[in-house]
């Protein structure tokens, strides 16, 4: 008697393939490659610094090409940010001594405004590629990179430190190499928050696109072809119609990017969620379904598959993914003492060099002046965080916990977060000029436009990651609404909220450099604050004042992170990680 197997064969549950899907995927890939090659040709044209243009043509016919150039820069910066995140966050999470340096350094890097990086790097990149616009392109891409990388590194570090203990034990019991653990354990377990943080950081890059493409540093002005520099040129001309046209093109590009790229990636990342039960309403993507119906991804996987084993063998030189269970006390104390001594000497020498530079240039009276301006910016940042938390935490939880709502709301939120809010600044400035309103108060709203999405995105990601079995248990127990928030939702989203609040605070400080001084035509409005101080010093090429402004901003951001946010971060790690 023949028995019938209880389980389906390997191909029984496979999705049906389609020749039409193959044709569509092949044509889309061919068009994408052609566009990238065609657009990238304009990145390395001859360049003469003495005759560089300060503005680009505002001919509307050039807008599609400008949008493509900006999009290429954004994706190059995103790729560099992902590579940086993998290396930096993994080192911070896996090396205890390095963590003591890398995390404060990341705090400092996050607190340095984009104009601070540009004032230092533009001349260096131009000198690195003499006679070519590639140097200016690299400076622009690096500036966009600085607006994306820090948030992604913080998010991936948080996912590594909150990794379930059983995954660590499994990696050590299976004697995985560090390379294998990274790609088979660390990246999959952190993929879901990584994708959301990448999408949010991409939106942060759009926010600073104007400053990265229409560069005004060291009393010099450079303009690269791009939609950000187009808006800057139209704003300088006071041409509201061209600003609105650029906004329309930007909306089309952001919506298309969401449909064709971010939505498929977020749906694909659902497979890496760590839980015991599945949601009844899984998110869907037409683009991802098209790829799954095509033979091309499978053919690429079969072609590259034979390289996996040789690569694993080659990377075993980095050792096994394990740490010694016991280190002699004397040896550990000597290593800690040596590390502390070297770090302390480096910090002292750096501080002495900074003090000497300030004394030789502007003096400490200028530092006190900048610190006083920082109080005004700090008050704006606090208001932004409080208002954004009160508004977006309930909204984020509602979206994250309701799959039907999420299916509609997530694309809308992604589009809103990806849209560069500073494209609206010229229109808001025109309203402020017409009404006579003060930028000292309106600057809070402008800063919120660039920072609020960090909180919303992280709360959505945290609420979406709440295991379904905990949600079902709460539903079965019929918890009252207040108790449901206090015992399940707030503890569950607390780590994500803290991560979002830290990056939102850094984003608000960075946004102050474009929110506290705005222009439209011949009119310039300035708010009292540290952001306006740094922006004016950068435009004038006053490097000592740039240094003082950036230093004071770093002290504010790092000091608040150390005294307040890091304590909440440690609390979230210790008590509320799922």
Strand content: under 5%
Gyration radius, in Å: 25 Å
Shape: globular
Number of helix segments?
23
- Helix and strand succession? HHHHHHHHHEEHHHHHHHHHHHHEEHH
Counted beta strands: 4
Report the biggest beta sheet as strand number plus sense, adding barrel if it closes: 2 strands, antiparallel
In angstroms, what separates the terminal alpha carbons? 50 Å
Structural class: mainly alpha
Oligomeric description of these chains? single chain
* Poorly predicted parts: 1-5
Q: Helicity range of the residues?
A: over 70%
Instruction: Describe the strand arrangement of the main beta sheet, using strand numbers.
Output: 1-2
Average pLDDT for all residues = 82
Molecular structure report:
The structure is a single chain. The protein is mainly α and 578 residues long. Helix content is 75%, strand content 3%. It contains 23 helices and four strands. The strands form two sheets. Strands 1-2 form a two-stranded antiparallel ribbon. A two-stranded antiparallel sheet has the order 3-4. The longest helix has 38 residues, at 364-401. The chain starts with 18 loop residues before the first helix and ends with a helix. 40% of the residues are buried.
Structure described in brief:
This protein has 578 residues and is mostly helical. The chain has helices at residues 19-40, 63-94, 96-111, 114-128, 134-146, 149-161, 165-173, 178-207, 209-213, 227-237, 240-269, 286-292, 296-304, 308-314, 329-360, 364-401, 403-418, 425-435, 439-464, 468-477, 481-515, 530-540, 543-575, and strands at 214-217, 220-223, 517-520, 523-526.
